[in-house]
Write a structure and sequence with these properties.
The chain is mostly helical. The protein is built from eight helices and two strands, in the order αααααβαβαα. Helix content is 47%, strand content 2%.
Length: 182
């Protein structure tokens, strides 16, 4: 198992709200927050490494989602705990690393747990692409790291978590290594 160590960049700020700190850090690191990397998303690299045909993965996903009754394999509550647990279930299927605590810590810092949070003032917003959702993802990053089988909507809580964790895995090894705006 490969271990990746992230050395986070930090800036000193005072009097900043929980939501504002991420935006300030993003603005201070102009051009680095959610920059599109040419590397392949983690779930694609994992799928290629496993050399499994896409059809087999699709069948496994569909089978896992349905019981004999036709309902989801597990019903998750429509709250932060449920969104994280559902996202982790999907992440596990796609080989995307991340712990419950690491994901929740980043959500609380980035959005305070509000799936509709929008940062309309940082450098990304100034460029016309505001960060949105639980993990404050911009649309180009969401599009690049979106995981098939999740909603194709940036502010969908589960899709936002999975795409952000896929991005963090590709860039930092895991969301657990992210301790500031990413």
């Amino acid at each position: 198992m490969r271990t990746t160590t992230l050395i986070p960049r930090r800036i000193a700020t005072t009097g900043i709200t929980v939501l504002g700190a991420a935006g300030i850090a993003t603005a201070a690191l102009t051009g680095t927050a959610h920059a599109q990397a040419p590397a392949k998303p983690a779930h694609q690299a994992t799928a290629q490494a496993a050399a499994k045909p896409a059809k087999a993965d699709d069948k496994a996903d569909k089978k896992a989602e349905k019981k004999d009754t036709g309902k989801k394999a597990e019903d998750y509550p429509d709250n932060l705990d449920g969104w994280i647990r559902e996202a982790m279930s999907i992440m596990k299927k796609h080989g995307i690393p991340g712990s419950y605590d690491g994901i929740k810590r980043n959500i609380i810092r980035e959005s305070g747990g509000d799936p509709n949070a929008v940062n309309d003032w940082d450098i990304n917003a100034q460029k016309g692409i505001p960060s949105k959702g639980l993990l404050q993802v911009i649309q180009p990053t969401f599009d690049q790291y979106h995981v098939k089988g999740t909603a194709d909507k940036l502010t969908d809580p589960v899709a936002n978590i999975v795409a952000a964790c896929n991005y963090a895995a590709d860039r930092y090894g895991t969301m657990d290594n992210v301790d500031s705006a990413y």
